Amino acid sequence: VMLGRAAYETPYLLADVDSRLFGEADAPIARREAALAMEPVLEAHIARGGRSQAVLRHMLGLYKGRPGAKVWRRMLSVDASANPSDARLLRRAVAAAEGGASLDSAA
User: CB neighbours (10 Å) of residue 75?
Assistant: First the structure.
């Protein structure tokens, strides 16, 4: 199967590939979980002096086609550009994309 740019532009389309191809019974990881799994990567990158956009720009398509996608992209691009060393932006962007649900207790 050739996916080309689709894998990068809409990465969540691969969330259930194991169940479809190999019959895996596990439910696919939620978008929220996938995004929050990048938090340590983002924090480490910023701690080394990097800018948040270098990590976040690769996540822009995670909510493509879903409610909240526009605010997700705006926060990961415009807001990250204005605050390049704010790792908490990822949590705020997930909360906004998920309809404002609080992530204070999310791991």
Answer: 20
